[in-house]
Amino acid sequence: MRFTPYTLNKQLFGLILILVMVSCQSGDEPIDLNQEESVPEEEVVVDDSDSNTNEEESEEETDSGIVSNIDLSHWKVTLPIAENGKTIEVEPPEILNYTNNEMLKEFMYNDTEDGSLVFYTYPAASTQNSSYSRTELREQMVSGSNSTNWTFAEGGRIKGSLSVPFISKDSNNEYHRTIVMQIHGRLTNEQRDRIGATDNNAPPVLKIYWQKGKIRVLTKVLKDLNASGDDILTTDAWQSDEGFVFAEEIGDQKFSLEVIVTEGRMEVILNENESVVYDDINMQKWGVFENYFKAGNYLQTIDAGASATVNYFDLVVTH
Hints:
The protein is of the alpha+beta class. Helices cover 15% and strands 36% of the residues. The protein has helices at residues 5-25, 48-63, 189-195, 281-285; strands at residues 75-83, 86-90, 108-110, 117-121, 134-139, 156-167, 178-186, 201-211, 214-222, 238-240, 244-245, 255-262, 265-270, 274-278, 290-299, 308-318. The termini are far apart.
């Protein structure tokens, strides 16, 4: 067949028409070049572990500002520093603002990690009748006054949880020791005047030591068990017993101490587990004295460079 220009154009047109029809029947949608590309929305994944971590960190930050919950309204504190030759004491109500007291901040402050109340001390100024320094609380049954105290007949109980996270060592690489709790005796004004004493000081009937990682208890016994009346009011009438050491080693770990006093009887309990009881003639005769509780850090050394910290987590006294 002879192809003329008309014939070629007609056949070419038919071929194009066929191709267009095939394209439309293929099911492909026509592309709109003016339409923006559709991008799948990015999936947001919530990591629960990260969320919990943030919450925990937030709680820790809140806890870092914990203020000790120990009620200081019936305690005064003695510091290892002096003014005009006398150790400095801070009583209620000033002691209640200890976190803002510049004088107290070095010696009595909050541990922001565990919320304990820290008592720090080192050899410096000492109180009358002592060679050692202390950062130690003294019970005041009437806030701001030392005059009202208690007898064994009236009874008393002190309970605290505490630790000794740091204490220095001596030249023999042995740990120093510190007194963490006491019951101190006191003469009434009448007793003081009757025996001609210059102050109201009486012996401490109880001293509880942190010593070599254990708890040691010392109490007082009469030198002469037959002594009575005014003869037993003098400090010289009494001496320390041999002491008692609890079996459990507590080291720098948290532990609890409880002391329960009733007429003629005193009991000391460590960690609600071990107990030692004093209920002999010495305790019966001790009933002539008034008493008050003490708690804190009474470091038993004058070695240069020595120091200790005692942390109290709670401390409660009842009568």
